[in-house]
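To fix ideas, we reproduce below one chain and its tokenised fold.
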Amino acid sequence: MVLSLQIGIGTIIGLILLLLIIVIILASAIRVVREYERAVIFRLGRVIGAKGPGLVLLVPVIDQPRIIDLRILTFDVPRQRIVTRDNVTVEVDAVVYMRVEDPLASVLRVRDFQIATSLLAQTTLRDVIGQVELDDLLARRDELNKKIQLILDEATEPWGIKVTNVSIRDVVIPESMQRAMAKQAEAERERRSRVIMAEGELLAAQKMADAAAAYAMNPYAMRLRELQTWAEIAREKNLIIVTEGGGSLGSLVGVARGVSQQEGKR
């Protein structure tokens, strides 16, 4: 009785262990791949393809999956100390955006595509910035971003990687260079102000020359302008104006009255 009971308990334990082993095997044979992922399957060391998304069935122990994320990945390019073409030392860092387009190539052709792309981005950043001057680095940043992105995209294409964007994030300039640039900007503003003043003086001189030519053609107009100037000065009521007399004053008054009458008729 006792022996049969022990045999029965041993059988139950064995069945439970067998059931657990079956559950573990089935669990390892079933893999759920998300929509933004792909599973690169290796069977006995040989790749059989990329599967997913959805439910993927694997041969236990024989198949080994590697999950690849297809979403856009971002990483920072560490700050690089670079000497520009005009011998100015700057510190530049950037951000790189990329995604996996070919899961098989990203697994088979490069050991770690993220590290490889990061190191390549650092080298490319140093090469591109070293070929431009400081003014171009500050003013043509969008063009430099596009150039770096094209170089990286071409280099990582065999790895199944697509570099979508590169952005130079910060440019640190030495304080001595910042002071020199501030002086240069101040001198440029001073030069522009002097040019504007000179242009104004030239325009004023031209207008005065035109006015002088008009007065020379009509002496009575010159005389009227003189009287108007006296009237403006006389508003102070503390000046004595001494002027010459002559027969021309009557003619001048007559001309002034004629002009007044014509304006009144209008």
Strands lie at 30-33, 37-43, 46-51, 54-57, 63-69, 73-83, 89-100, 161-172. The two ends are 142 Å apart (CA to CA). The first helix runs from residue 2 to 29. The CA atoms of residues 83 and 89 lie 4 Å apart.
